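Query structure, 422 tokens:
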């Protein structure tokens, strides 16, 4: 099967990109041809298909919103990529016509590519499958958060609530644009063109149902990692590990404040600390004189595996309805217990008291108490082995591949039947 893989970045900057490259490697290992479609960037992994990639917003060095110089051209790019980009639609249609994929698989496209990639593929008769790593279809902020608290008013009371509360970046203009874009997407029914949705968690599947997505299009397929047996060790390390994007909804501040109370314990933070939130957190650590929190920046490959292996346990302190964090699966692969927030679908990832502990969402004291339960080396080792077994049972690469191919085969078969008039 020839698969066109769509994501707004073709380099690893967080969980969705790590998942994208893992999926690519998994499919290729089973003999499929995987072809990327993305945005040009100086950070991209080399690929002969880069000639099809679309121009970035701003320059090829810009990654995040705060990097953009807000010139008239950049503002127009931001608007079109948020709402609907004919430039992007023409680009993906050019690639589809030339490489002739059997299917388009979208990992993420909002604000950098736009849903025009869906319509572009549909118009050429190519079925589209879309994986959801956040709640962008239903929440203008993507995360069901307002002022650091869970909020689902836009689902229950309409998108106008986002404008009222200025939920997007605290800006009336940004909130208006995002709400307008969502209304356009609903008006043109662009998501009706998606043949199948991949929900990495049971909670995401529930939200899709609540949002009106037909049951037959919803497929719960948990994440996985392509790390193998060689990466497994039962080493009991010395530090708690936070791994992932440094953004407020991920809750790194909760972890830092827990360790602020635990002077004799060490927290290692692995993730891009050059972001606005990363800089703020480092400044907080500096101002408070916290010496037991170490920022190691973004790691990948062998450096990342070694950092996980040397840890004692993984901390996932999310304060939002985390979909299905890849970091949890990474922890399981490396036989590490997990301390995780009690919110949304996250409790499904831990056998409380056996493979880790649940703690009260957003509560540093509750997390500190959970950390205090991890003092016994033998207990930590046993919990890590249970965590590893949980991965084998629920989140293996082969289980993911089997479910994904069942979905791909179904949507391709449906598309073929429509073409033949059956």
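Result returned for the query:
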């Amino acid at each position: 099967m020839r698969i066109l893989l769509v994501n707004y970045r073709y380099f690893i900057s967080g969980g969705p990109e790590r998942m994208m490259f893992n999926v690519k490697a998994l499919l290729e290992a089973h003999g499929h041809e995987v072809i990327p479609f993305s945005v040009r960037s100086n950070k991209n992994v080399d690929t002969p298909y880069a000639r099809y990639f679309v121009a970035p917003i701003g320059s090829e060095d810009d990654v995040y919103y705060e990097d953009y110089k807000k010139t008239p051209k950049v503002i127009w790019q931001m608007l079109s990529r948020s709402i609907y980009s004919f430039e992007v639609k023409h680009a993906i249609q050019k690639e589809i016509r030339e490489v002739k994929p059997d299917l388009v698989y979208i990992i993420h496209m909002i604000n950098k590519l736009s849903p025009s990639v869906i319509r572009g593929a549909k118009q050429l008769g190519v079925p589209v499958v879309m994986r959801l790593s956040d709640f962008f279809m239903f929440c203008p902020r993507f995360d069901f958060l307002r002022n650091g608290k869970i909020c689902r008013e836009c689902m229950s009371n309409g998108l106008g609530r986002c404008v009222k509360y200025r939920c997007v970046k605290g800006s009336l203009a940004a909130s208006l644009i995002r709400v307008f874009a969502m209304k356009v997407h609903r008006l043109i029914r662009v998501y009706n063109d998606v043949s199948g949705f991949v929900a990495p968690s049971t909670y995401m599947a529930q939200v899709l149902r609540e949002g009106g997505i037909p049951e037959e299009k919803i497929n719960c397929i948990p994440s996985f990692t392509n790390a193998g047996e060689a990466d497994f060790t039962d080493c009991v390390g010395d530090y708690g590990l936070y791994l992932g994007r440094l953004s407020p909804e991920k809750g790194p501040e909760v972890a830092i404040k827990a360790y602020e109370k635990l002077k004799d314990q060490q927290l290692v933070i692995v993730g891009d600390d050059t972001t606005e939130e990363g800089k703020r957190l480092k400044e907080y650590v500096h101002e408070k004189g916290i010496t037991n929190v170490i920022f190691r920046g973004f790691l990948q490959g062998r450096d990342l595996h070694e950092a996980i292996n040397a840890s004692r346990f993984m901390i996932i302190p999310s304060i939002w309805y985390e979909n299905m964090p890849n970091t949890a699966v990474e922890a399981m692969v490396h036989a590490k217990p997990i301390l995780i927030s009690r919110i949304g679908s996250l409790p499904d990832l831990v056998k409380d008291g056996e493979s880790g502990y649940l703690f009260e969402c957003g509560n540093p004291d509750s997390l500190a108490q959970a950390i205090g339960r991890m003092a016994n080396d033998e207990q930590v080792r046993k919990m890590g082995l249970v965590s590893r077994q949980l991965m084998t049972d629920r989140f293996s690469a082969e289980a993911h591949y089997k479910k994904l191919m069942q979905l791909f085969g179904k949507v391709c078969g449906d598309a073929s039947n429509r073409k033949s008039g059956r």
